[in-house]
Amino acid sequence: MNNILLGITGSIAAYKAADIANDLTKSGIGVHVIMTKAAQEFITPLTFQTLTKNKVHTDMFAAYDPGIVEHISLAQMADLAVIAPASADVIAKLAAGIADDMLTTVMLAVENKPKIICPAMNTAMYDNPVTRRNIETLKEYGYIFIEPRDAMLACGTKGRGALAGVEVIVNAVKEKLEPEEAE
């Protein structure tokens, strides 16, 4: 069985991550969720624990198992890491190498495995030159980006920034896993 990390950040699109987690779990993929503090303002860890049947990781300093360095064991266990939705904040942290929470720390420890980023934010934030530079930096490091859609956004404006469709993200994850193991 393949195991993936599903990072969820502070975005109104966080509720769509429940469908992503559910679809991947039903496909026989082990989904291990890491939520930022901001993500928990939009949707609860209990939702993901119930859908994935796995512990949800939210706190860098929680004492899960004193014999395990949690952020390293999660990074080593994963066959792939995906962040959906990915906020401008987390994209910036990763581009700068900042590891100040469980998600960014684990992502920086993931080696030689696909890392997929699915941005979701306001159009102005997405098109901001700083965000564009951070995305290009991460692409240079080997991160794969699934571009956001043009849609009516939660802020009431229409433009690019809506999280890519659940099916698009799920299919991208399955494609990047070993074909014989993802079926």
Key terms:
single chain; 183 residues; alpha/beta; five-stranded parallel sheet; two-stranded antiparallel sheet; globular
Structure description:
This protein has 183 residues and is of the alpha/beta class. 43% of the residues lie in helices and 19% in strands. The protein has nine helices and seven strands, in the order βαβααβααβααβββαα. The protein has helices at residues 14-26, 45-52, 70-77, 88-96, 102-109, 123-127, 129-140, 166-176, 179-182, and strands at 3-8, 30-35, 80-86, 115-119, 144-145, 149-152, 158-162. The strands form two sheets. It has a five-stranded parallel sheet, with helices on both faces. A two-stranded antiparallel ribbon has the order 6-7. Strand 6 and strand 7 form a beta hairpin. Helix 4 (88-96) crosses helix 7 (129-140). The model has no long low-confidence stretch (mean pLDDT 91).
Counting DSSP H or I runs of 4 or more residues, the number of helices is 9
Radius of gyration: 15 Å
Strand order of the largest sheet: 2-1-3-4-5
Give the structural class.
alpha/beta
User: Which sheet architecture does the biggest sheet show?
Assistant: 5 strands, parallel
In terms of DSSP E residues, the strand content is 15-25%
Q: Helicity level, as a percent range?
A: 40-55%
Strand count: 7
